[in-house]
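Bug #2210: token dump truncated for LacI family transcriptional regulator?
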Amino acid sequence: MARSTGHSRPVIKDVAKLAGVSAPTVSRYLNGTAKIAEDKRKRIAQAIKELGYEPSMAARALSNREMDSVVVFASKPDEFSTSATNHGVEGAARKRGFLLNIVSLDEADIASVEARVRMGLAVRPAGVLVYEYGWAGVEALKVVPSNVPTVVVGGGFGDGDYQVINAEREGGRWMTLHLLDLGHKTVFHVRWSQESGDNSRTNGWRDALLERDIDVPEPIVIPMGDFNKAVAAGRKLGRRKDATAIFAATDELAIAVMKGLREAGRRVPQDVSVIGFDDMAFDAMWEPPLTSYTQNFHEMGERAFRMVFDQIQAKRRGIEPPPAQVEIVQGRPCLRASESSR
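Reproduced locally. Full output below:
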């Protein structure tokens, strides 16, 4: 139970009195603006716990100090991957008493990214998360100052000292091997035009074919968001007798390709097996239910916040930051009915 101070809410002076230090020392402890002796830090932390003291974010903002908040710079804000990651970050931030600010980045207007990042940093967040789910995230990372606690979410290995990455490449490899294990001689691949980093599902597809000593066909690249072109790609593949298995880089692409196959008179999965990636909510309701690969974006968000929070705490306490780290979040296949053996 929090100790009573005679006020409706404890203030810094109450913490300072209980800890036996000055109010400015407590303020420095809270804001990480200077190193504080270990014994004083422990007494302040204990006093805060006993009193149930909660720093005022509004007061911190008015005094031009960083706030208990984290800003997310989100590429591809309208996609499931981004919204699911946001939910994970928000839940973890709420448990720590932090606010989450989301700044959307426009993939179609890369020139605007720098201004958007500077606007997000103007509220003086304690830390930053950059979603490298697209090229806008790559550009945003170039603008974030090196002294701001930062975690990269997604992208390629080594894009940041602190990074949470999904196993996209391994997922693409697994899905391709699954089709080959069903007896298909090769697997064709359809992907969007915008794809970055070495940790891509396309590279996983290529890895699997090379692993089985199979010639790698050229992937069919669809302009970003052009579903008519994706349907046309399905029709084109439908006219090829050797196209018995197709790995689409997203579930939306898979469904568009399936439409094109039907228009070409090919049946799924009797004539052609089609699988997607991302495990969207509608996959199980499609006809036939779409086999896909689910990525645990919620867990990625939780881990990313914990990683940036550890950096923030180290900075505020004037101690060395945690060692650089990359955490890989595994996904899993969701086998349904859109593929069959040969």
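Output looks complete on our side. The chain has three domains: 12-55, 67-166+298-330, 168-295. Marking as cannot-reproduce; reopen if the truncation happens again.
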